[in-house]
């Protein structure tokens, strides 16, 4: 003990009897089926697909530019808002008016009434308000105020990298504090992070090194490559000159998950869809 404060407890004391792992829908076709848990039924383990990212998880989506990261964040926010679950969306890159225009269009393309869901999306403007980007305590206080006032259930930060531009040694501290905040507010969160040109495109590494991936509950890696050889054209089922995008769940400490690379598509309307794994694609070509 230090000054009477207790830093330990039994597993029973820490058990949260009100918490159960279930899926929180992202609205990203093909992604929600890649997370699961096992339950014991009739004395045997049985897989149960979550049909979403784990409840109250902090999920990091990382990748190079033009891989659909922000689109995934927007789809998640729109989907949860349409289901009646309020979302706090911290925009660090895009000014709010442009973000709202994009999200409204996507909602309408999904057949949703924007007027019915717009009140469930609260925008926190760290894109034009430099104080929110440069003062972590102010940002945390703002997120907490929005959470309390609007009964927020989900948090999106796009991008968390923008909070430590030119200050990457601070990445671990900033990510840790925002992770702890999300946990204390009992929200499901999606953090978007960016890769630098020197990073391995297929790894969980992002700006700030592996700090983000080590702290968060789950990391999703997205990447892209151009088709330049006949072998690649045959492997990815795309003609030479086109671009193929790929997605992989790098890890998730809260539940089981698929570990393979999957084909990822950005539709002409701007929606992200996750398709077959590369192994499934290979099997298709051999039949």
What's the helix and strand layout?
Elements: H1 11-14, E1 23-24, E2 35-41, E3 44-49, E4 53-54, E5 58-63, H2 69-82, E6 87-91, H3 96-109, H4 114-117, E7 121-125, H5 130-134, H6 136-150, E8 154-158, H7 171-185, E9 188-194, H8 211-215, E10 218-226, H9 230-236, E11 243-252, E12 256-257, E13 262-266, E14 272-277, H10 278-286
Parallel strand pairs: 5-9, 5-10, 6-7, 6-8, 8-9
Antiparallel strand pairs: 1-4, 2-3, 2-12, 10-11, 11-13, 13-14
Helix pairs in contact: 6-7
Q: What's the architecture, going by CATH?
A: 3-Layer(aba) Sandwich
* pLDDT < 50 stretches: none
For the record, the CATH class is Alpha Beta
Indicate the proportion of strand residues. Answer: 25-35%
Assembly annotation: single chain
Query: What series of H and E elements makes up the topology?
Result: HEEEEEHEHHEHHEHEHEHEEEEH
Spatial ordering of strands, largest sheet:
7-6-8-9-5-10-11-13-14
**Radius of gyration, rounded?**
20 Å
Average residue-wise pLDDT? 92
SS-based class: alpha/beta
CATH homologous superfamily? Answer: P-loop containing nucleotide triphosphate hydrolases
Total E-strand runs: 14
CATH topology: Rossmann fold
Shape summary: globular
Count of separate structural domains:
1
- Main pleated sheet: 9 strands, mixed
Give the N-terminus to C-terminus distance in angstroms: 65 Å
